[in-house]
């Protein structure tokens, strides 16, 4: 681990958000789908549980899933999970529920999708390192394909320079006080679909961190097969 992430006074809380409705999965709760015999959510939590830079984990899930999540945490002996809290009507409400439930000692919050089970400790470390320096950082990957902008009639109207385009993933890591100040200050903050949007609207720059193309989000049945192939290649 780098010198920056040897965090004497930087208590880091991971907020794992798994409160979605899984509409693109046909209503099947993707958090409990198994990849190589282990539930998606457990894959995700295990990475953060093993990461030296993470001090605690708060899981945000649907109220109806809280008991099932508790059972999985006990079954797989995930030691860093401190709380399981109920999600809200929007992503930002769910994230906020998790952030305010972190320890009073928490200085940084690492917000991550429960449905991104292939995140690595290296990505977490690299993103945290930049968050400690700049106050806000998010991982992602460069856009490989040409992107077109269209109008309401599906006419192509522009071709953005992909040199400056990125697919943003999670974790997105923020100074906790910065995040909470942004929530209080920015109008309609609970409607944002991305955590970086909140910090951007607050007027704070978010540092981009090169991540991993394998850090996919499980949103369709095909993603499960892809995740299995990645894990098999890793030997996990």
Can you describe this structure?
- The chain has 236 residues and is of the alpha/beta class.
- It has one domain (11-234): Spore Coat Polysaccharide Biosynthesis Protein SpsA, Chain A.
- The protein has 7 helices and 11 strands.
- The strands form 3 sheets. A 7-stranded mixed β-sheet has the order 5-4-1-6-10-7-11, sandwiched between helices.
- A hairpin with a 2-residue loop joins strand 2 (34-35) and strand 3 (38-39).
- It is globular and about 55 Å long.
- The chain starts with 10 loop residues before the first strand and ends with a helix.
Kindly summarize this structure in a few lines.
By secondary structure, the chain is of the alpha/beta class.
| Domains, number | 1
Based on Cα principal axes, name the global outline. globular
Backbone CA Rg: 18 Å
The main β sheet shows up as: 7 strands, mixed
Report strand order across the widest sheet.
5-4-1-6-10-7-11
For this structure, what is the CATH homologous superfamily? Spore Coat Polysaccharide Biosynthesis Protein SpsA, Chain A
Tell how many strands the DSSP assignment holds.
11
- Measured by DSSP, the beta-strand proportion falls in 15-25%
CATH domain topology: Spore Coat Polysaccharide Biosynthesis Protein SpsA, Chain A
The low-confidence runs, each spanning 5 or more residues with pLDDT under 50, are none
Under the CATH scheme, which architecture would be assigned? Alpha-Beta Complex
């Amino acid at each position: 681990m780098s010198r920056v992430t040897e965090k004497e006074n930087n208590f880091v809380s991971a907020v794992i958000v798994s409160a979605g409705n899984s509409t693109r999965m046909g209503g099947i709760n993707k958090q409990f789908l198994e990849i190589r015999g282990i539930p998606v959510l457990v894959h995700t939590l295990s990475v953060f549980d093993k990461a030296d830079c993470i001090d605690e984990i708060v899981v945000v899930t649907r109220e109806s899933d809280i008991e099932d999540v508790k059972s999985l945490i006990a079954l797989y002996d995930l030691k860093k999970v401190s709380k399981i809290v109920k999600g809200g009507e929007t992503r930002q409400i769910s994230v906020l529920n998790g952030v305010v439930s972190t320890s009073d000692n928490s200085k940084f919050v690492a917000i991550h999708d429960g449905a991104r089970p292939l995140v690595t400790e290296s990505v977490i470390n690299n993103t945290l390192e930049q968050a400690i320096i700049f106050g806000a950082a998010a991982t992602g990957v460069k856009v490989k394909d040409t992107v077109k902008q269209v109008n309401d009639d599906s006419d192509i109207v522009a071709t953005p320079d992909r040199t400056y385009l990125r697919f943003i993933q999670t974790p997105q890591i923020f100074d906790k006080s910065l995040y909470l100040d942004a929530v209080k200050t920015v109008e309609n903050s609970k409607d944002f679909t991305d955590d970086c949007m909140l910090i951007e609207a607050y007027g704070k720059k978010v540092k981009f961190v090169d991540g991993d193309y394998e850090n996919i989000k499980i949103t369709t049945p095909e993603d499960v097969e892809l995740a299995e192939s990645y894990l098999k290649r890793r030997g996990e």
